[in-house]
Amino acid sequence: MRVHVADHPLITHKLTYLRDKRTDSPTFRRLAEELVTLLAYEATRDVRVEPYEIETPVAPTTGIKLSNPKPLIVPILRAGLGMLEGMVRLLPSAEVGFLGMQRNEETLEAITYANRLPDDLSGRQCYVLDPMLATGGTLAMSIQYLVERGADDITAVTLLAAPEGIKYVEDELAGLDIPVHLVTGAIDEKLNEKGYIVPGLGDAGDRLYGVV
Ligand SMILES: O=P(O)(O)OC[C@H]1O[C@H](OP(=O)(O)OP(=O)(O)O)[C@H](O)[C@@H]1O
Ligand SMILES: O=c1cc[nH]c(=O)[nH]1
Ligand SMILES: [Mg+2]
């Protein structure tokens, strides 16, 4: 897995406010959206394009346009939903599929409780959105799921990642022969005994949408 840490000062600045426990939900939502737009710039570096002939008012020229099929954006519910608008702003013609996944707080194992994806993802570039890569169980499972449906190029965009989770995803996907990339705003120090990222930002879903 190619891992890119987008450690631009503006990203780190916004992440600092996102991490701060005094930051309220409306501000947290706004910052998450702004951050994903900055990360999306890096994440879409390899988006598939093709030549496109146009005429400017002065002369004909060849530019590029996004190829078909258009990329598929897959936010992982709940917390990934907080990243959707920022990503769609940069890729307005992309389609959006949804996966609902939740980590069991005791076992830390992820289960899938919702799935609204195209059946056939052959030849699709997919962008998976989830703010937190902690143990890596959720991301590994969602990538495996997209690959089973035919996705042939996957980029995960996270705000924070833990070293243990990156290693887990790499080990789980070791046999895969398609490109998988990770673009993250930071790689934090470690996981704590409850599987939370340290220093992290707490529970991203709760901070976006409240404790349920
Ligand atoms: O890497 P992992 O150890 O699998 O943990 C990461 C997952 O945990 C959080 O979701 P959560 O299960 O809290 O669901 P939520 O988004 O509904 O809050 C987060 O948004 C990731 O999906
Ligand atoms: O630190 C963490 C780990 C998993 N999920 C979160 O929302 N935060
Ligand atoms: Mg949560």
TrEMBL record:
GO biological process, one term: uracil salvage
Catalytic reaction equation(s): UMP + diphosphate = 5-phospho-alpha-D-ribose 1-diphosphate + uracil
Source organism, top-level taxon: Bacteria
KW Magnesium (keyword) present: yes
Positions contributing to 5-phospho-alpha-D-ribose 1-diphosphate binding: 78, 103, 130-138, 203
Phosphoribosyltransferase domain: residues covered: 5-210
GO MF, one annotated term: GTP binding
Obligatory cofactor(s): Mg(2+)
Xref: Pfam families: UPRTase
Residues where uracil binds: 197, 202-204
Cofactor, how bound (note): Binds 1 Mg(2+) ion per subunit. The magnesium is bound as Mg-PRPP.
Stored Gene3D superfamilies: 3.40.50.2020
Name used for this protein in its record: Uracil phosphoribosyltransferase
Organism in which the protein naturally occurs: Knoellia koreensis
Gene this protein is translated from: upp
